[in-house]
């Protein structure tokens, strides 16, 4: 019997299919395959070019690249705010600051994410479902709640199963294992992930690593100013997706709960990635400087 020679087999296959040249946008960032497929094609005598529209391809696969290279999802924090940075009145009212077009656009970003994350404060004040509804979607993203002490009401909308065929349990991350609460939430269909922490708060980096292990590429955050602030402070936010309405809310809750600075140099800085108008609002996308 003839020994199996993969290069020769590949060359014969390519010749039969009439393939002389392969143009790829980027190498697969998965370290277990990275570059080897393209090399096999080259070894089989096929003309391989890599890098056409690479920037666009990386953008399209930003979450996958992030997970393959860092083990962490790409974290996009979405905020709807007034021109003076207000995201909610002090009584918790925030619906709606931006217009319908911006809200629909926000649902398109939810839909492309693998998971949507929110905080217990938002669930308490707004009781959101955190599903994609404004646009058609082939699947609902995984819903994730940061609830350090398992305080979520068992009637909260976020605990209701999504209507898709492959309904996924809501993931609730906590820092204190209250067995009774955990069992009650599990009976409501949630999956509780305990990340014990002596400070009594979910360690956000650890949570992101766990989401990465579960295959979450893009994480879409829609939370209030406390959790948003923690994500910035702990260097967990890769991208800010900010909708600005041409309104002034005055003394209201801001976008990020951050401590006062004594030096301007210590400001968290980003770079603009995209700026455009959506309906009557502005949409600003900023990315961390090294992304
Ligand atoms: N305009 C918008 O885009 C928008 C979007 C969503 C929500 N909102 C508004 O935001 C308001 C709610 O704001 P919020 O700040 O209370 O809600 P939140 O940020 O969604 O949740 C706050 C909770 O997150 C927890 N948290 C913060 N950092 C944490 C960390 N490192 N680890 C674990 N837990 C952490 C806090 O826990 P501790 O209590 O233990 O500190 C706090 O209870 C509502 O009025 C809602 O309408 C506005």
Question: Overview of this structure, please?
Answer:
This protein is α/β, with parallel strands linked by helices and 291 residues long. The chain has two domains: 51 residues, no CATH class; 211 residues, Dihydrofolate Reductase, subunit A (3-Layer(aba) Sandwich). The protein contains nine helices and eleven strands. α2 links the parallel β1 and β2. The radius of gyration is 23 Å and the shape is globular. The N and C termini lie far apart (52 Å). The mean pLDDT is 93. It binds NADP nicotinamide-adenine-dinucleotide phosphate.
Give a quick set of tags describing it.
two-stranded parallel ribbon, nine-stranded mixed β-sheet, alpha/beta, binds NADP nicotinamide-adenine-dinucleotide phosphate, 291 residues, 2 domains, Dihydrofolate Reductase, subunit A
What is the averaged pLDDT score? 93
Rg calc: 23 Å
SSE succession: HEHEHHEHEHEEHEHEHEEE
Form type: globular
Bound chemical compounds = NADP nicotinamide-adenine-dinucleotide phosphate
Domain tally = 2
What would you give as the CATH superfamily of the largest domain? Dihydrofolate Reductase, subunit A
Low-confidence stretches at least 5 residues in length (pLDDT < 50)? none
CATH architecture of the largest domain: 3-Layer(aba) Sandwich
Record the strand order, biggest sheet: 7-6-5-4-8-3-9-11-10
Number of helices: 9
Structural class: alpha/beta
CATH class of the largest domain: Alpha Beta
Strand residue content: 15-25%
Taking the sheet with the most strands, its summary is:
9 strands, mixed
N- and C-termini, Cα separation: 52 Å
Helical content band: 25-40%
């Amino acid at each position: 019997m003839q020994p199996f020679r993969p290069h020769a087999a590949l060359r014969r296959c390519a010749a039969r299919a009439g393939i002389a040249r392969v143009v790829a946008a980027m190498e697969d960032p998965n370290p277990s395959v990275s570059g080897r497929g393209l090399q096999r094609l080259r070894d089989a005598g096929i003309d391989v070019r890599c890098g056409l529209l690479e920037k666009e391809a990386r953008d399209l696969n930003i979450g996958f690249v992030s997970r393959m290279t860092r083990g962490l999802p790409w974290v996009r924090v979405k905020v709807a705010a007034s021109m003076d940075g207000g995201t909610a009145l002090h009584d918790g009212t925030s619906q709606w600051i931006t217009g319908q077009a911006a809200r629909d656009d926000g649902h398109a970003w939810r839909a492309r994410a693998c998971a949507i994350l929110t905080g217990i404060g938002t669930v308490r004040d707004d009781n959101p479902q955190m599903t994609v509804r404004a646009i058609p979607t082939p699947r609902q993203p995984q819903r994730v709640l940061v609830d350090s002490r398992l305080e979520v009401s068992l009637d909260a909308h976020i605990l209701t199963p999504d209507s898709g065929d492959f309904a996924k349990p809501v993931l609730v991350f906590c820092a204190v294992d209250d067995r009774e609460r955990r069992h009650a939430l599990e009976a409501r269909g949630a999956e509780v992930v305990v990340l014990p922490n002596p400070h009594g708060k979910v360690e956000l980096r650890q949570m992101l690593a766990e989401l990465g292990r579960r295959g979450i590429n893009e994480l879409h955050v829609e939370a209030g100013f406390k959790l948003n602030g923690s994500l910035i402070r702990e260097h967990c936010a890769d991208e800010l997706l900010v909708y600005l309405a041409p309104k002034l809310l005055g003394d209201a809750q801001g976008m990020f709960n951050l401590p006062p600075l004594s030096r301007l140099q210590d400001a968290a800085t980003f770079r603009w990635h995209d700026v455009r108008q959506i309906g009557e609002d502005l949409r600003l996308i900023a990315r961390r400087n090294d992304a």
